[in-house]
Amino acid sequence: MNPQTHLAIDGYVDAIPAPGTGWGTARFDLTHSPADADRITPDTPDTVYACTTADPDLADVLLREIQPGDLLRVTGTLVQPDVPQAPAHFTVDGLEVLEAAPAPVVYGLVLERFGSYLVVFDVDRDQVPVFTASGRWVGEAANPDAISDLIDAYEEGDTR
Fold it and tell me: Which residue intervals of the chain are DSSP H helices?
């Protein structure tokens, strides 16, 4: 029988959590770095825990809100694998977000609002796509100076 330990582990999520094998379950990997890297061997590897939860509320949070790079504290039961190279299995019964990862930034792409319209500026293109705030396609302006003309034409019923 494998030894089991109930504990709390802090670590980072490297990939978006995935649905588990049954309803209300989720699975993810949690990467834990050594707490005091200065006092241990510099090449000590991080520990990866294969985590699962059967708590529908935790699974919902994991699947809807947790993103790669989030720092979590999970509590639950740790089971050591039979095979030393396999990751330890951690059954999660508690979850706390210690630090959310910064929102991803798309470089060179900017969304800007013009009243009830949205425009997409892309540094690699002269043309500017224009949408209504509700997502309806308005058209593509030939350049930033033509945005107002495109919006005026759309409001007058000209869909070009």
Answer: 56-65, 147-155
Per-residue model confidence as pLDDT tens digits over 74-117: 999 998 878 877 777 899 999 999 999 887 666 778 888 888 89
Rounded to whole angstroms, the Cα distance separating 111 from 118 reads 7
Query: Sign of the C-alpha dihedral, residues 90, 92, 93, 98?
Result: positive
Summarize pLDDT for 115-155 with one digit per residue, the tens.
889 999 888 888 999 998 888 899 999 999 999 999 999 99
Q: Which one, of 112, 75, 73, 80, lies nearest residue 94 by Cα?
A: 75
Structure tokens at 19: 């649905």
Q: How far apart are CA 18 and CA 86, in angstroms?
A: 19
Contacts of 138 (CB under 8 A, 6+ apart): 117, 130, 131, 132, 150, 151, 154
Do strands 88-99 and 47-53 pair parallel, antiparallel, or not at all (unpaired)?
parallel
